[in-house]
Each structure stands twice: as structure tokens, then as C-alpha cells.
Amino acid sequence: MRDEQLLRYSRHILLDEWGVEGQERVLQSHALIIGAGGLGSPAALYLASAGVGHISLVDHDHVDVTNLQRQIAHSQDRVGQLKVASLQAAIFAINPEVQVSCYAQKADLALLDQCLPTVDVVLDCTDNFETRQLINQACVQYAKPLVSGSALRFDGQVAVYDTRQADSPCYACVFPPTQSFEEVRCATMGVLAPLVGVIGSLQAAEALKLLSGMGSKLQGKLMMFNAQHMEWQTMRTDRNLDCQVCSPFRNQAIS
Hints:
It is a single chain. The protein is α/β, with parallel strands linked by helices. The chain has one domain (3-254): NAD(P)-binding Rossmann-like Domain (Rossmann fold). The chain is built from eleven helices and eight strands. Helix 4 (40-50) packs parallel to helix 10.
């Protein structure tokens, strides 16, 4: 590690649980962030500021003026730009040493098959159930830890799904693909701006702990936050031994 890096990341290095070794792991790591909006903005900026060596961004959308209320990586002068390009510019403004790969497209299985073999952690910052299931399926297949977040109105939640751990559920264990959910988005329901910052920052914290070697204590738990009443709740989530998504891969690994 160079002297300027020791200085830049000194406040992390001073943490006994992190140290030089943890920072070196972070510098050599690769994070995939899917969604460059309200959750992806703070998550990406914190990962970049912490020195994650390579960040891949996936989002097909363009910056709109309605995004500026909460998507803090974007700015007025970048309205109309691709969100991944705008977020890349924001990352470079904080830390130009980070390698950034941009994929201006929707996350589909072909793209996930391309990206996941080389990444160390995946952050799901999307806003629809179908895409979350695809991301989970790919993370299970490639045994990659998934940090999942969501936010709507005053309610947010974050969880870590890491099927490398025998007792950890996957996203589909908790939210089965066969279960029907009514898709509601902030365009129709609204969202408190700082809420996405809280949840996206928590996603960054969990991802950094995984990348540094500290590990996450959020596996098997769903952390929920209500910003209107300032209430936190943590619910235990168990692995579904009959999960149609993760059980075939786990059984294959055992055999």
C-alpha cells in the first residue's frame, strides 16, 4: 500500500477489526451494484470512498429531474445522462483511483452470468421483485454474497444473503418466487429522501465488512426501519430446506 493510500484510508486502518490487511482486501475487491438510483447512489459513493478497487454499475435508466430529490450522486447538470455515467462521474470526483465498469442495460441473466464470476459482493439496489429474484438466482449459482435493500414511503429494509454459509437463507427462502407481490414504486407512492440514504449506507456498511474480512452479522436476519416513527425491528429469517432456488445448488455442493 502506498503512503498516500495509508493516509487516505487511515481512519479505517485504525480500526482494530479492519487494519492494513482489511484495507488491502478492500483495495483488491470487486463490487457489483445493480441500480444507480436512490439506494445505489450512497452505496456506490461509500464503497468508492472506502477504496473498493473495482465497482461495476448496472442501470438502464437516465437521470430525471424527479430523481434529484433523493438520488444524491446525480446533479442538475447531468439530467438526461445515463445514470451509470452520472454515478461514475460522482465516484471519480471522490476517488479517481477506483476502476468503474458501466453497464447501461437492465440486469438479465446473460449480464449476470457475465459479471458475477469476477465479483466479490453484489448489492441489489433495484426496485422490482422480478429483478431481485434474478439477482438472487445468480448469486446462489455463483456463491456470491448478496446485500439486498429496499425503500418505499417511510419504510426500508436491508438483509444479507450468503449461501456460502450453510445456515444462511437466500432471498427466495424469505420471499418465494411463487408468492405474489403487488409492485408499488416511489413514482406512485412516494419516498422520504433520507430513507434511501439510510438503507443504501447500511448496504455499503455490510458490503465493506464482507470485503474487508470482518464478515456480516446480518445473515439470517431482516432489518427493517420506519423513518416516520424512527423505529427499528430485526426479524430472524430461516433457510427454507425446500427452496426451489438454493436447495439444488446446496445439495449439489454436498454431494
